[in-house]
Each structure stands twice: as C-alpha cells, then as structure tokens.
Design a protein that fits this description.
The longest helix has 37 residues. With 83 residues, the chain is mainly alpha-helical. Helices cover 84% and strands 0% of the residues. The chain has one domain. The protein contains three helices and no strands. The termini are close together.
Length: 83
C-alpha cells in the first residue's frame, strides 16, 4: 500500500482512539472522586506528607490520561506515515 492510501486509515484510527479515550474519562471521574473522599484530600491540614503526595497523584490522573490519549493518537498517525 502507498502512503496516500494508508493516511486516511491512520487518521480514522487515531480519531477512534481519541473518541474512545475521552469516553473513558467519564468512567474515571467517579473513581477519582471516591479516591479523594476516601483520602480526605479536601482537608489538607490533617494530611501527612505521604497523603499529600497521593492526593497530588490522584489529581494528576486525568491530565496524564489525556496526554496518553493524545500521544497514542499522534503516534498512530506518525507510525502510518513512516511505513
């Protein structure tokens, strides 16, 4: 196959990954809220240093997940371009 033939397929695949990934965020949000409540992240004064780090990791889960989705989508397009 030529690059011109595989490029639309790569873009559609990347778009599919992007849509599925952002749909998964809706399933991730309640779990992160449950984690924040269980850890007591709203009351920062009573947290230990380890608890503060865990709250920061939990808060960073969504941005890292979004970066992973974007990276997978762009990587899929670039991989098809190199073939």
């Amino acid at each position: 196959m030529k690059k011109a033939q595989t490029m639309p397929l790569a873009i559609l695949t990347a778009l599919g990954i992007f849509i599925i990934g952002f749909t998964m965020i809706n399933f991730l949000l309640p779990e992160i809220d449950t984690f924040r409540i269980a850890m007591g992240c709203a009351n920062v004064v009573s947290l230990t240093d380890g608890g503060k780090v865990l709250c920061l990791i939990g808060d960073g889960a969504i941005p890292y997940f979004i970066l992973g989705i974007v990276s997978l989508s762009i990587g899929g397009i670039i991989a098809r371009m190199k073939l």
